[in-house]
Design goal:
Oligomer: single chain
Number of domains: 2
Mean pLDDT: 77
Largest sheet: 6 strands, antiparallel
CATH topology of the largest domain: Beta-Lactamase
Strand content: 15-25%
């Protein structure tokens, strides 16, 4: 920015930069807090959605288990084909349910009779199992898996296994009651942890119990793949665990990473643990997410950059305008000073040229006749007063006086004393409460001009001071003829004289009120002239504090 004078505008530039820096830090801080809170809210929303999806799958598992339990019973062990299609229809829409098992609880002494009955169904697998049992090759079966509906052929191996020999099912067969579901321990299938959801068949036996004494209780088990319960493209890190409220222990079924990962320096870790309570054993779902400690979106940064560019553009335009105004003021001031100097030089020359013939006029009048002499002296004195007053007014000497803190009370007493020494009197009233900063000599001259005008054109002159927190008012009043209302706005113009009330025979050149008005304007004050109802003129100087 070569067009900016850095030296002259260093303060403005520093102030603009400090304001921009403060606004930038505050706005970025507020944006970062807002967006950080938005990310926390987003994490909470995703966690709730994820938890609802898992919980929905758990309730689906319980619902399907109850449906299968309601439509099966002990007699169905011999009528598997009648219920197979119903079970397959129930589990087909749910890929996470990998298998459905039916197995009875049978005493050892009745197991042979059961196998013989099953052999009557002409099942080769049953016949093979019976031969191996009779030969002692297999231990006595207590809970044989009679029905296995599986979506994976590798799971068919569980058919005719002893359910009690499966570690994951150990303990669940005895604990489950008619209206109770129980989740088993993890069961490893295809290098992944599964688990069983176990309950009892609820449909009662429709024939006499003494004909079927060994399978009065039948168990139903769903083999569930927990990893397939997880929604696809899940954005969260999680772990799903089976929880034992009695021991306060958990066993992880599936997880994408450890529950509490190591956080980076500029990130913060958010954790959420939810206890899911289906009808079976409770589950724990732990979700973990990392969000940036300081986060600003691209849109926010773009808006900030655009605002900064607009701000500095506005500052540069403002500085350029200020520089142009300052340069114009300096040029105007130099021109005014030059014109004033030329004017003063011209007036000094005129004054010099006029004084010489005035002197000659006075000398000649002294040797002329007495009557003509008096007239010449009057004209010469009037010309001298006019020249001196004009020079004093046009030179603006009051501009050279520096303002100072003045004691107005002492100033008024001085003016009162000087008036008394001249053989005249004025009435002074009012009280000065505080000092006032102004050009003391010019204020004295302004008050004296008002008093001299009042003494010259009227009588019974009074000076009143009104001092408040807002302004200082000086009022001078007389009982003279006053001023014509039509001319009252013109008497403050230089060299203006009223012809009727204030003629040339009273003295003056018409600059007294102009000097007072000039002083008031230089102090941001006002001069007010007003005719009094009882006669005379009231002149008021109002100066702001």
């Amino acid at each position: 920015m070569s067009w900016i004078n850095l030296k002259n505008n260093s303060r403005d530039i520093a102030a603009a930069l400090l304001f921009w820096l403060f606004a930038a830090i505050l706005s970025l801080y507020l944006l970062a807090i807002s967006q950080h809170q938005d990310q926390r809210t987003n994490f909470s929303h995703r966690t709730t959605t994820f938890q609802s999806a898992i919980e929905s799958k758990l309730h689906i598992n319980s619902s399907i288990l109850e449906s299968i339990s309601a439509l099966t019973g002990p007699a169905d062990l011999f009528q598997q084909e009648n219920i197979r299609w119903a079970i397959e229809r129930l589990i087909r829409p749910h890929p996470h349910i990998r298998s459905v098992l039916l197995f009875p609880t049978v005493d050892q002494d009745e197991l042979g009779e059961l196998l013989s009955t099953l052999q009557a169904m002409n099942s080769p697998k049953v016949a093979s199992k019976l031969e191996r049992y009779r030969s002692g090759e297999l231990p006595p079966l207590l809970s044989p898996v009679i029905l296995n509906i599986s979506k994976d052929e590798t799971l068919q191996k569980m058919l005719w296994m002893d359910a009690r020999a499966v570690d994951a099912l150990s303990g669940t067969i005895e604990i489950t009651a008619t209206d109770h579901h129980l989740s088993s321990r993890p069961y490893r299938v295809a290098n992944r942890d599964h688990y069983f959801l176990v309950t009892n068949a609820q449909r009662p036996l429709n024939i006499r119990d003494d004909n079927f004494p060994w399978y009065s209780t039948t168990h139903v088990a769903l083999l569930i793949d927990p990893q397939m319960m997880i929604p696809e493209n899940s954005p969260l890190s999680f772990s799903l665990s089976m929880f034992n409220p009695a021991t306060q222990q958990k066993r992880v079924l599936t997880a994408t990473q450890p529950a509490i990962p190591t956080s980076g320096l500029m990130t913060t870790t958010l954790n959420n643990t939810a206890r899911l309570n289906p009808r079976s054993q409770p589950f724990l779902l732990e979700t973990v997410g990392e969000i940036p400690l300081v986060s600003l979106s691209t849109q926010s940064m773009l808006l900030f950059v655009l605002f900064s560019i607009f701000y500095f553009f506005f500052i540069s335009v403002n500085l350029r305008a200020k520089n142009r105004a300052k340069s114009a003021a300096e040029r105007s001031e130099r021109q005014l000073l030059l014109q004033t100097e030329n004017r003063v030089q011209m007036l000094n020359a005129i004054s010099h040229d006029i004084r010489t013939p005035l002197t000659r006029l006075k000398l000649r009048s002294s040797i002329s006749g007495q009557r003509q002499c008096a007239k010449c002296l009057v004209d010469a004195n009037e010309i001298g007063k006019l020249v001196e007053g004009s020079l004093e007014y046009l030179q603006d000497k009051h501009q050279e006086e520096m303002p100072e803190i003045c004691n107005i009370d002492d100033l008024v007493k001085t003016i009162e004393r000087e008036v008394a020494e001249s053989g005249q009197t004025i009435k002074v009233s009012g009280e000065i409460r505080w000092p006032y900063m102004c050009q003391l000599l010019q204020l004295k001259r302004a008050i004296e001009n008002l008093i001299n005008n009042a003494l010259r054109y009227g009588n019974d002159v009074s000076l009143r001071i009104i001092d408040t927190e807002q302004q200082l008012v000086i009022k001078v009043s007389d009982h003279g003829p006053g001023i014509d209302e039509k001319l009252i706005d013109q008497v403050t113009q230089p060299y203006f004289r009223t012809e009727l009330s204030r003629g040339r025979d009273s003295g003056g050149v018409g600059l007294g009120l102009s000097i007072v008005n000039q002083f008031c304007q230089s102090h941001d004050g006002t001069l007010t002239l007003k005719n009094r109802p009882e006669g005379g003129l009231l002149a008021s100087i109002s100066l702001p504090r």
